[in-house]
Amino acid sequence: MKLRETATGAVLSRRDALIKLLRIGGAAAGTTGLGFWLSERSHRPEPELAINAKRSHSVPLDPRLPEMAVIQGEDPELLARAALDALGGIHRFVARGDIVLVKPNIGWDRTPEQAANTNPSVIAEIVRQCWQAGARRVIVTDVSCNDPRRCFERSGIGEASHHEGAEVILPDPARFKNVDLRGDVLRDWPVFDPFLNADKIINVPIAKHHSLTGTTLGMKNWYGILGGPRHQLHQRIHESLVDLADFVRPTLTLIDCYRVLIRNGPTGGNLDDVLLKKTLVAGTDPVALDAYVAKAFWNLDVSALPYLKLASARGLGTYDFGALHTYTKMIA
C-alpha cells in the first residue's frame, strides 16, 4: 500500500489519509428556505417495455481512470460535476439513446436541511449531465416510506428534477411487478417497474445514520426499488442488502455527503444531528464507497457491517477502499 508524507512528517497509509480527509471540518447545518413543487400525475407503464430482471447496468473498468473520487467544496452541483469529470465524464456512463434512471433517497417527509433525503442540487446536476450525454429519457424516482407526494415536494428533489426536464415518477401500486430476484434471501418480490426497464441506473444516496445497520448508504438505498412489506427484510437485513445490490448492479454511485445525518437516522428531523461536510464521494465500486463513508463518519469497520463482507464475497466490489485508485480534490 502506498504511503505519503504529511506536513508534520508523519506517515499515513492511503486508507488513513482518505479517512482523515472526510473528518476534517464539519459544523451543524443551518436552516434555509424551502422551495415547493407540485407533482404531476405519474406516468402509466409503457406496454412495449419488457422486464429485464437481474442484469448488470455497470460499465467496463478503465485502468487509466480512478475507481473512486472524493470531492469537497461549497456548491453541491459543482461537486457532482467534478466527480463525474474525475471518473471519466458522463459519456463514459451514459450513451446516446439510453434510458437513464436516477435513484435518490426520497424516503422521508423532510427538508434538505434535515439531511434525510439526497441533496436536490446534486440530482439536478446529474440530470443535466445525462441530457448532455444524449439520453433519450431521464427518470427520477424512489419508493418513499412517508407519503410520496410530500416526500418529493419537501425534499426539493421533485421540483429540481422537473425543472431540468426529468420524468419525475411517483410510486404507483399499478406499476409494481413481481420479480424473482434470485437472491439468497430475496426471491419473489414486487419491484417498481421503472427500475426493470432502464438501460443505466445511477444510485445517489445520502450518507445517514441508521438505527439498525449503523449507516444507510449506497447499498441500503436499493430498498427504494421495492414494494410490499419491506420491514420484514430487517430480519435478515445484511443478506437482503447484498441480494438487492446483486440484482441492480448500478452504472455509478454518488454518495451525497454534503449534509450528513450523523445520528438518529434514517428519518432525522433535528438539525443538531446534521453535520455540514460539503463532500461528495463517487465511484464504480459500491462496496468500497459504503466502506469508506462508514469508516470516515461513523468509524465503522467491516466487522460492524457484515453486508460489506458478504457483498465482497459475491463479487460486487471490495471493502478495502484503501487499495483503490482514488482521486481527491477540493474546489472553490
Oligomeric description of these chains: single chain
Integer count of domains: 1
Shape: globular
- Biggest sheet, in brief? 11 strands, mixed
CATH class: Alpha Beta
* Helix and strand sequence: EEHEEHEHEHHEEEEEEHEEHHE
| Strand elements, count | 15
Portion of residues in beta strands equals 15-25%
Helices, by number, come to 8
CATH superfamily membership? LarA, N-terminal domain
Distance between the termini: 30 Å
> Helicity, in percent?
10-25%
Low-pLDDT runs of 5+ residues are: 1-11, 25-52
CATH topology: Rossmann fold
Mean pLDDT: 88
Task: Kindly provide the radius of gyration, computed on alpha-carbon positions and rounded to a whole number of angstroms.
Answer: 18 Å
> What is the CATH architecture descriptor?
3-Layer(aba) Sandwich
Structural class assignment: alpha/beta
Spell out the key features of this protein.
8 helices, alpha/beta, 332 residues, eleven-stranded mixed β-sheet, two-stranded antiparallel sheet, 15 strands, globular, Rossmann fold, single chain
Secondary structure layout plus pairing:
Elements: E1 3-5, E2 11-13, H1 14-23, E3 27-28, E4 68-72, H2 76-86, E5 99-104, H3 120-132, E6 137-141, H4 148-154, H5 157-163, E7 167-169, E8 176-180, E9 188-192, E10 200-204, E11 206-210, E12 214-216, H6 237-248, E13 252-261, E14 274-283, H7 286-298, H8 306-313, E15 326-330
Parallel strand pairs: 4-15, 5-6, 5-10, 6-7, 10-13, 11-13
Antiparallel strand pairs: 1-2, 3-14, 4-14, 8-9, 11-12, 13-14
Helix pairs in contact: 1-7, 2-3, 3-5, 6-8
